[in-house]
Amino acid sequence: MSQTVTQLQQVTAFLLASLKPYVTANTIDAWQEGGSLILSGEDLGTGGYQVAKWKHRATIAFEKFPHHRVNPYNLLAMLAAFLIDSGWPRDEYQLSDPELDIDPVSKDNATVLIELELMDDIDLIPDAAGPVMFNGQRYRVALVPVNVAEEVDVQTQPGGAS
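The structure assignment produced for this chain is given below.
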């Protein structure tokens, strides 16, 4: 079963990998809340469709963030760099910049909450056993394959085109 990986899963996995060994999987949590389903129905070719976009607030919570061992500005820079490098159309959809709350709970640890707005594509591909009925066919949620031309054959007419 092929499934899409959400933007929240991508950001969380990146931060976890970047902050190891100081942050472990059992000290980080992430969830989505409060969103809007933006309907599309766009034909993406190869039998696939984008039926919607899911615009939502996401939270990433770090328990026991070792703020004296890991400079919190490194966390801020990692998050900013990831979002910039992702190529996600944040400006196009007017997604707000991340907000952070850092609450020291001891001299060595803090609770860090990152709240950010994200937008996920909800794409469908044909699947006779899929759970989604759309346009009279069965589909499943998955990334629609993109065909990219590897070669282009350009022919010109003698004397130039007019």
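Interim note for the steering committee: The first strand starts at residue 28 and ends at 45. The mean pLDDT is 89.
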